[in-house]
Design goal:
CATH architecture of the largest domain: Alpha-Beta Barrel
Distance between the termini: 17 Å
Strand content: 15-25%
Length: 387
């Protein structure tokens, strides 16, 4: 039997740009972010990112770039002029590309939002996290509830008709009532998209070193159940483990590309990329993490590591991504995206279905509601390759 081969030209391509500076580091954050001293080095950093882009773009072939996500850090610390220079320097963006910029209420105003919209950004993701001033202070955020509301109003006034709000639950000292109050305020604003996710204590964070008291498991389950019902009543469709959209067209295309094991280029300090080569092999790369080292490196030195994914890696990583989606993915996509025969997933799929973690769907790799609730247990079943 002929070995299947991943077809690079048929795999969607996206672009991630990482801007690593924040006004200050939040105690729960494990992203590659650094407290800003003075003004960000906009011109040098944009030039550095574009140099990386030209190298990676040449390796990706002629595929159009379907989405761009400018994340951080706090990208809204960069001026509209700098964001415009970045967008102007990119080639290959499809005419209808989704272009998202992350913004924090404490680091943006109406004039900046209008400038980003004029530069070509068509989607904003605003890091609200909570509308409770006490909880925001405990999270180390630089904004208050009034600032969160003002940021959303500024986005609307600037012409953004595709806005995501990031909102966390399971916060230190949060009850079911305060969690639902947060969610109600977010829904009252009627954003097109809501990322509603549980706070977790990640390694190498201040919260991990000095853990705050979080709600217990029963409280977290009650919050998740009540919140899911409230979101459904409000007309938000859950399509990913922590993502909800008012309409299908408002689902985040960039994140869907991750979960469907698409390819993505990566520019900026600490950014990670994935690229399928012409021979069907799948590669990942990571760029230098520290902004200074990244800026000082030559284009050839900016990559800190790159590696080809082995079959075992692909068997783990594909479901790790796809099973975050409520609808999962077509089983036929596995050989197309990985170059491996579908039979390599047969044993873990059988185990997961026997445990009720996967739906008995002959055409899709799709988690059951039980599997979504215990997603880590489901994913772990794929972390053993039966040769």
């Amino acid at each position: 039997m002929t070995k299947p081969e991943a077809c690079a030209e048929s795999i969607p391509l996206a672009l991630y740009a990482h801007l690593p500076w924040c006004l200050r580091k939040c105690p729960y954050c494990d992203f590659n972010s650094h407290a800003l001293i003075g003004d960000p080095p906009e011109a040098a950093y944009v030039a550095r990112m574009l140099a990386d882009f030209r190298i990676q773009r040449a390796r990706a072939g002629s595929r159009p770039i379907r989405s761009l996500f400018i994340g951080g850090g706090t990208p809204s610390l960069f001026s509209p002029r700098a964001i415009g220079a970045l967008l102007d320097g990119l080639d290959g963006l499809s005419a209808d590309a989704e272009i998202t910029l992350e913004a924090n209420p404490g680091a943006a105003d109406a004039a900046r939002f209008a400038g980003y919209r004029a530069a070509g950004v068509n989607r904003l993701s605003i890091g609200v996290q909570s509308f409770d001033d006490r909880l925001l202070a405990g999270l180390g955020r630089v904004h208050d509830a009034a600032g969160a509301h003002a940021a959303f109003r500024a986005a609307r006034a600037s012409g953004f008709d595709n806005v995501n709000l990031d909102l966390m639950h399971g916060l230190p000292g949060q009850s079911l009532g305060t969690a639902m109050a947060d969610l109600t305020q977010a829904l009252d604003l009627a954003p097109e998209h809501l990322s509603w996710y549980e706070l977790t204590l990640e390694p190498n964070t201040a919260f991990h070193a000095h853990p705050p008291k979080l709600p217990d498991e029963d409280s977290l389950a009650a919050i998740q159940d009540a919140g899911g019902e409230r979101l459904a009543v409000a007309g938000y469709q859950r399509y990913e483990i922590s993502a909800y959209a008012r309409e299908s067209r408002h689902r985040c295309r960039h994140n869907l590309n991750y979960w469907r094991f698409g390819d993505y280029l990566a520019i900026g300090a600490g950014a990670h990329g994935k690229l399928t080569h012409a021979d069907g092999s799948v590669w990942r790369l990571a760029l230098r993490r520290h902004p200074r080292g990244y800026l000082e490196a030559s284009p050839e030195q900016a990559v800190s590591s790159q590696w080809r994914l082995a079959p075992r890696d692909l068997i783990v990583e594909y479901p790790l991504n796809a099973l975050r989606l409520v609808d999962g993915t077509l089983l036929a996509e596995f050989p197309r995206r990985t170059g491996l025969p579908l039979a390599r997933l047969s044993a873990p799929i059988a185990r997961a279905r026997a445990l009720g973690l996967l739906e008995a769907d002959p055409e899709r790799l799709r988690p059951s509601p039980f599997g979504l609730r215990y997603l880590n247990d489901l994913i772990n079943l794929f972390d053993c390759d039966d040769e």
